[in-house]
Write a structure and sequence with these properties.
about 220 residues; alpha+beta; 11-stranded mixed beta sheet; 13 strands
């Protein structure tokens, strides 16, 4: 009987270690993230109601991987941008979406394939139907609370923190959720954001509004 209980205890310890190892592997990719929407995500109720049915149908999403692997491929340093569009506001999670993904051309072929697979797997709902994948120079600068992303002529993001973290002091005026689960999620002020491609909707440009989210992502 004592041997039985010892074997059972050893088995439980082994299974616990396997579960912990599995959980550690499930969160293996980390980095910085910033997102801009074509609607104010932090605003007064009247402003929100005035936009909800007319805009907010497009978004720019940008990732900067700081560490992690996908299918054994090291993705540290890989940068990516996704452009998402829908026929209605992106606040409707059930609305069909189309997207275009741009991977930094400095990524190797194996990194490009792995990053695309990771994004498509982890953010299926947010991205919807991926209609195009491109390779282009992508820069991602995160300095302090400023984010600057550039994907050549196709897309750009320039976001600053809101003064005094106002979004955290007035959370009832944050009307949306980011398209990616984030740690330390904050609302950002969009100095400028633009999309100039032609694979999705028409080109667009936004500036001077509280239309961004930023934080750390992990999966």
């Amino acid at each position: 009987m004592r041997r039985f209980w010892f074997a059972a205890l050893a088995f439980s310890v082994l299974m616990g270690a396997l579960v912990l190892g599995s959980n550690a592997e499930s969160v293996s990719i980390r980095g910085d993230y910033v997102e801009v929407r074509t609607a104010s995500v932090f605003a007064g109720a009247c402003h929100y109601n005035g936009e909800i049915t007319t805009t907010g149908r497009d978004a720019l999403m940008a990732w900067n991987v700081t560490s992690g692997k996908w299918d054994g491929v090291d993705l540290g340093g890989v940068r990516a941008v996704a452009i998402v569009t829908s026929e209605v506001s992106l606040s409707d999670n059930d609305a069909p979406r189309r997207s275009e993904i741009i991977i930094d051309r400095d990524a190797s072929a194996s990194q490009t394939r792995a990053m695309l697979e990771a994004l498509k797997t982890k953010y299926t709902t947010s991205l919807g139907n991926v209609v195009a994948t491109l390779s282009a120079p992508v820069s991602f600068d995160h300095t302090g609370k400023s984010y600057r992303v550039n994907a050549g002529r196709l897309a750009s993001i320039d976001v600053e923190a809101m003064p005094n973290d106002l979004c955290c002091k007035m959370p009832n005026l944050v009307w949306y959720s980011p398209l990616v689960s984030l740690s330390n999620r904050k609302v950002g002020y969009t100095s400028n954001a633009s999309y100039a491609g032609d694979n999705l909707a028409t080109a667009w440009q936004r500036s001077g509004e509280n239309s961004a989210f930023y934080g750390s992502f992990a999966f």
